[in-house]
Amino acid sequence: MRKEVAAVFQQRADQFQEQEKQTGSKSSTVSWLRVLVFICGAGITYFLFRNYNPTAGIIGLILSYMLFIVVMRWHSRLNYTYTHFKLLRELNLEELDRLQGKLQKLDKGEAFTDNQHPYTSDLDIFGDNSLFQLLNRSITSLGKTKLASWLQQAALPAEVKQRQEAVAALTKPEQLDWLQHFVVMPRHHKHTEVPSSAFFEWLRENSLYKKHGYMKPLLFILPVLTVAAIVAWFYGFSGYIPGAFLLLQFLLAYRFRTIRDDYYEKSISIYEAMESYTRQMRHIEQHETNAALLTSLKNKLFYKQHKASEALGKLAGIIDFFSYRLSTLMAFFLNTILMWDFLWIYRIEQWRDQYLGQVEGSLEVLANYEALASIASFQLANPAYAVPEISDVPFEVTATALEHPLIFVSERIANSFTMQGAGKTIVVTGSNMSGKTTFLRTVGINMVLAFTGAPVAASQMRVAPAQVYTAMRTVDNLAESTSSFYAELKRLRILLNLTEQGIPVFYLLDEILKGTNSRDRHLGAMALIRQLHRRTASGLISTHDLELGAMEEELKGSVENYSFNSTIEGDKILFDYKLQRGLCRSFNASKLMQLMGIAIEE
Question: Which of 39, 45, 150, 423 shows the smallest number of beta carbons within 10 Å?
């Protein structure tokens, strides 16, 4: 199946590469045409001015300028198309890298790492070789933050089903072009990690014209009077009047220089994002779908017959005009004569009053669409993955051919597994490196995928809603004078507190209490299992402590033993990585120590 999927991505990459070459060649031709139009226009205009009259020269200049603008815009569109094909090619090559496990260059989602989170650190949700790298296709802070929040917090069953339906709609064969075009649109623009919502929050709290009401009439009157006075001066009237108006404008600009700079710097910082969001929302507004969630999201982009894309486009246009101040000479004349900065600050505040509420809601729509597009792309890359069923049976986890999605080998070992009911504990024993910890992570990461609304690395899976909680990578902290054993105890204390809240908790505990002596470890682990048995919790515990296997007799029907085993042939230790019923009966620690040079007598 993976070979067929890889072939599709490679074919699309080759197709887009060919279109990229063709468009690039055409763009180069039009670029030379633009130069030719400029030279010919300048020559014709010069000829008309010299041999005829100024009117003919002006007409020639205007027509030449209009033709140049037409060719320039044509060239700009071709450049955009060329870049778009290039980005589509790169996206499909990126999909091939994901299939091969080459995740190093992809966004790790490090901003979302949290060692105190119930499971993200232990299950490699963020960071190097992480689930986020495998899932995320977004480059905007909106899309990345939304997807990260879905991975950090399980959705309600109804919401999971809505997302699954939306993903199914986006993964139809006829939707592939729409989906990939949507994914690469924001890649035309530079995006900062600071969310656009920060600008909108700042804009809501600041208002130049409400705080300084006298500025509004001055904005409309003073530039007109200044221009009129300058024109009058050309006709012989006193120069003191335009000088006074120019001085007044200069003083106003100086008085509000900090505010003007603040408005400009904050608005220009989101200009690229607004251009990107405008194109993306226009793409969504034109999207035809029957999926309930997608339809609901799309409808939110329309408000009183106003499209969200139009509202954002207007803001991008305002910021673009505002940016004319970047030219020092232009800024001097515009701000000294026309109060340029004040005009566009006024337009921004007008825009805020009319569109801000709609736009803030539309950004949430876009964030959801981007997160769904990431999950849909993940599903397209892994068509053999199953869409999990949300179970009504408490603590049910039933999976067939369950695999770890972050293990990239030609033949991954799959295990089938089932458990259900509160107060259940699966004790997984096994020799070193036999796969017991990886199995716990396999169960956990697929549960996270299921609760996100994503497909799971299995041929079938049923899972009941629960709060996943892990204790696997507890380490010491010198800054806090905390040993690894005490860090693990604190982690287990959080688990016990969590189970007191009445919510279903599914725990995955690896080698619990490994930092103490065998007697205390054994007593503590048994006490913990008994305590969890009486609460709204179930889960898996991996251990080398075979004595924990006796709990199966003590708590019949509530504790079950499973294991991973290995065999030793000469100096080789062989693993099958298959989950088996019962306690582990084969151990390899002595053999491993011998292979490392430690002289252990047989």
Answer: 39
